[in-house]
Amino acid sequence: MNRIKSFKTKVYLHPMMALIMLIFFVIILSGILNLFGVSASYNTVNSVTGSYQSNLVTVESLFSLRGLKYIFSNTVANFSSFAPLIMLLISLIGIGILEESGFLATFFFAVTKRVPKYVVTFVLSLLCVLFSIAGDVSYVLFIPMAALLFKHGRRNPLAGIIVSFISISVGFGINMLMSGIDSSLAEMTVLAAKMHGNYSLSSSGLLFIMFFATNISSILITYICEKYTIYQLGKYEPDEEEITFDKDRLTKREVRGLLFAGAGFILYAIVLIYNIIPYVPFGGNFLDYSQSRYIDKLFGANSFFNSGFIFVITFMFFLIGFLYGLGAKTIEDHRDVCDFLSKSLDGIGKNIILIFFASILVSLYKYTNIGSLITAFFSSIIYKSNFSGLPLISLVVFVTLITTLFLPSLTARWEILSGTVVPLLMTSGYTANFAQLIFSSFGTVFYGLTPIMAYYVIYLSFSDKYDKGGTGVLKSLRYLLPYVFIILAMWIILVTLWVLVGIPLGVGTNVLL
Q: How many structural domains compose the chain?
């Protein structure tokens, strides 16, 4: 078993009990808010007339007969369809054969043996930030892999989990390339900008500032990990059976296994890439051609690539692990393959129970509309503030940060806020691109700090797995605070610099109209 030093506090509230307490809190709070008729309204822009229209948000009570019926009739269905559970189980199948065949130990040894540790951390963080373009599936792929990367590097796996989780979370608002989420936000931004006439957003409209944010954020995350988190967590001391490498070079079998795996990966990648290139002979089969933007063709609701992405990656893991096992002679017959596929699912009972309670919390909270109510309330504050210029920007930043904790979904929040934020900022002389930048960048700073975010439970469950002192919700959040505040400071400095100096945000896009 892993022995990991943790904080010196003796007792932590078990994460399972913390989730149960949050569930009861949501039930009671929804009943109180509904009893007193608490409501809030927010403005959207009518797509036809281009004028404001008001929308009312009320709270659905769970502390009622109707609410109780919803709880008991939907809990099983919500759990069975809870995306983090399905994605985690499928991805672990592929990761299992990668780990048990010896591929991960060999690969991590080969690429990190003579590489400084801070370089490994930086590359991990940068990949997580960039890969966030794939959406929430990034969590179930990178968090387990990051833990194994640090474990095989004789470092605390918790540090890898923290780095990957925070990098993906902030990456949703940093990525240089437009993601499916960015495309959805852009549609709302363009609609909200109709108050000032026709407006269009370029896919490269934020390229320049995002280039700096991507690299600077990875550097800052690396610095905090190497200078603070590693020492905070303590030294990782693996048991004897966990020690995989105690040598200076790879054996011939291991090299042959890597060559087999590398060849398989290249062939698989060629087929995959060819099928996401539009309008090529016999190619582009994984795209949704009903969409106009390429990113929507790739990650649209009817895209095979999007709907089957987790299986595409899992099958790639299986192929790489299987070919490595054949080359390195770690797989001798079909029984080894079957055993390896299920190995990573051993001992994840606690993870599944945590995910079960998280699915209840997330579904009930969404049903109550509490997050939408709070966001609508803050939207009305912005609308009535009569602020302009820097005070308006500061208020939007504050509201964006706070509402993240209560309504993590970027698209759901922007649907409520965009109809107010975009017209007001444009009235103050700022572009719609800048309005979306403010929201998307600051809107993901606190993204990893709320248990209401569905994939937070993946971070929590793996942290609890590797922290034998017991993680707990508060402790897991405390690990993230240094990263959150330094990323917040980074965005404040970058946005201030871009506004004062007048640097273009991207290709053909400025801060001011």
A: 2
